Amino acid sequence: MEFQFHPSSGGGAVRRWKLRDREQKAAILATGAAAIVALSLWVTVPAVAIRALRGKTSDALGRETASARAAFAVAEGRAAALAVRARDAASLIARIAFLYRLSPSTWPRELNPEAGVLPAGAPETSSAGLPRFLLALDRGLVLLSEKEAADPRLPPATPSILPLAGELFEPAAVFGPRVSPWTGAEEFFTGLELATPAGSTVVAPADGTVAYAGRVPPRPDSRLWRYGNLVILSHGGGQATLLGHLARIETRVGQRVRRGERIGTVGATGWVVSPSLHYEFWREREGRMAPTDPRFAVLDHRLGPPDVSLEKMEATSAPGPVEPLPIH
Questions:
Q1: pLDDT score of 258 more than 90
Q2: What is the DSSP secondary-structure string of 236-292?
Q3: Which of 21, 287, 299, 320 is the most buried (most CB within 10 A)?
Q4: pTM for the full model?
Q5: Which domain holds residue 288?
């Protein structure tokens, strides 16, 4: 193999460079190696650049995904908290509707727990049903407002607070079937027994008139005498409340009382072994007065029972014939 170098002036001598066989092989190998290196760089450099670009994009997408997930978790938490507040509000206004004697047929069915519009423990279902549930809450509030506008005396005369001035109490027995601690027989407990310190102030749960104050004479067919010193308040509209086991009665028959007004003190009179307040809520139903769950009429404390529909509250009543209240 021979290489010739011609001068640019055209007047100089031509130089010749002849490669021997061994030198020719070395030149060919060097040229091939350079070509391989060039090809490798052409392939490798873009691949490295692509991997770097992908890494940067992946990091950015990862950060954006994490940020989106965090934002979703915050939104989901807020929706869950709003759903809890909405369910609490629905339970509260359903109890007011019960106390105001609103017809279940006019009450928004979406607010009934059985309807499942805003179920507890189901975030996806709750988020989907929340707008519908909030609209139903608005309709319920409108119905209550219309009822109060038609009868302004209704709210103060509706039992709605726990008849104790203090906060130190514990439910010892609640409305429903139980085994009597006195006789050992099955019975239906018609009220709410609140263990609380002796001498605690007992207050009227709503405006009303004192219909009875004293002790009911003991009789074999009577249970009311078991409550010792008791006060019965008539609130009008077919509603009455009974407060028993009092140590002192500080009111008299015929006296008008206001919600929150002191009417006596907690004691241990009647069938009770420690200071307690016995509380019953009576309501006219199907032409007769009968006890119902007094927890429906306690709106300032959460004592239960589990949230139920207006229909179920309307259907709740002590079974069978009950001893009538000694009022006229």
A1: yes
A2: ETTEEEEEEEEEEE---TT-EE-TT-EEEEEB--SS-SS-EEEEEEEEEETTEEEEE
A3: 299
A4: 0.77
A5: 170-315
